[in-house]
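Hey L., structure's done. Input below.
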Amino acid sequence: MAHFAKLGIGNIVERVNVVSNLVATSEQAGIEFLKNLHGQDTNWKQTSYNTCGGVHQLGGTPLRKNFAGIGFKYDRIRDAFIAPKPYPSWVLNEETCRWEAPVLYPNDGKFYVWDETTLSWKLISE
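Output:
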């Protein structure tokens, strides 16, 4: 199945539709199908369910850095889908187009949440 993100104002993803591979034999074929279904004034971009951080999880060719979700922004310059920024201190990794905390997540098997006030990870569970 092929997935397509409907872009709204500011290139923000409004929804993601699934189109059969029998119909979406190319990105343009999928877009034409969706425009005929939803109206010619709609703007669509193909997205890959298996792409995360610029890597195709099944070894295929990655598409647009990340699978699009509602609220994501399509960045035309990077040709990438980027999630909303989760915290003001986080920085966009240009390679993966994913947001990263200014401090690495602890690698000790415990569970943490980000505390924006202290700019640190806070332990929530062992």
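The CA atoms of residues 7 and 101 lie 27 Å apart. The chain has one helix and eleven strands.

-- N.
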